[in-house]
Amino acid sequence: MKKNIYILLLAMCTSFGFAQQTPASKQTKTIAITGATAHLGNGEVIENSLIIFKDGKLTTVSKASQTDLSGMEVIKADGKHVYPGFIVPSSTLGLVEIDAVKATSDNREMGEMNPHIRSIIAYNAESKVIESMRPNGVLLGQIAPQGGRVSGTSSVVQFDAWNWEDATVKVNDGIYMNWPSSFTRGRWWLGEDPGLKINDKYAEQVDQVVSFFNETKAYAAGNQPVINLPYAATQGLFDGSKKLYIHVDDEKGITDAIHFAKNNNVKHMVIVGGSEAYKVADLLIQNDIPVILQRVHSLPSRDDDDYDMSYKLANLLVEKGVLVALNANGQMERMNSRNLPFYAGTIVAHGLDKEEALKLITSNTAKILGIDSDYGTLQAGKSATLFISEGDALDMRTNILTHAFIDGRSVSLESHQTELYKRYDEKINSGK
């Protein structure tokens, strides 16, 4: 009997210790934020601003004025800064909880051509990794699958929800593809030269992609007596309801991917990664193709690249007129997503204007994901998805959030990390 009680108590402690916070309730009272410096996300800044939102929507974004605020909840934010919620694209947040535990990983499927695999079905709204995004202002994200040649279908979510249905902002927004690389690296563990070498199978791998798309178009033109899920899932690429997100880095690969999309009448395409996108910036502009850049804190992709190429790449593309967004691609991508604003800050340190860098994680990303009618900027009529920081949100030393709202709901800024910080801060500084 005593053993059973111990087991029950252990289960209760484990449950309480690892439970996600309860999602915030719907906004019921009009809220006004006064006195803050408002960074609108479109390059504009309003000093001493007045921001009012009701029923989850912004109603006023302007300079402070004599306005009757009676009956409203007023947040005095003098000396603080207000930003639209940051958006992380091309992410696997909510698809993997612990990399070392296979049972918690659901970011890829077996096989090469899986456009019908929907990442949103596997999204875990109660992930403890997701709750660690909010204290840095990352409030929305695009959840994308990985693996294979055609990985599957992505969706856009907000980061405070009961389940994936509640979290969804835009379902099935695009299809992710991994373009073949024209170069490969030798396998040093087999005694090969670890340097780059030409991929002898590149043309064959590209032909496989072309053949698959030819089959999807033939399927669409037929009677379709039996539904073929992979073929049916691609049809949105040709009518414009879905975007094709192509992971590709090298100059030749980007060029070939663009021609492939044009030849197959893909309406909207986005380059993901694009470490050599600056070499074909004119081609990107001619075809109105945006780029989601890889994690800024990365080594140069080639031995002869400038040492700071990863830091200044965004600036090179923005100066050319390319629409650019940032993500946290790379090792430990999910955990690094919380550092999204600081990647933008690094770009500022290497030449890009601060408000322009802010666009790379707000309005530009919203435009690329097709959610800019509601998110990405602080404008009347849009969603009240925003946060208040004590200082510059692109600086890790001063980005200290006091409030955050998603669709007008006041969301928790607590996480497992903040709880541990408070616990040991109290121990160290209490004198015990």
TrEMBL record:
Gene3D superfamilies: Metal-dependent hydrolases. Residues 1-19 form the signal peptide. It comes from the Bacteria. The keyword Secreted does not apply. One of its GO terms (molecular function) is hydrolase activity, acting on carbon-nitrogen (but not peptide) bonds. Keywords: Hydrolase, Signal. Transmembrane segments: none annotated. Pfam families: Amidohydro_1 (PF01979). Residues 330-405 form the Amidohydrolase-related domain. InterPro entries: Amidohydro-rel, Metal-dep_hydrolase_composite, Metal_Hydrolase, Metallo-dep_Hydrolase. This is Imidazolonepropionase-like amidohydrolase.
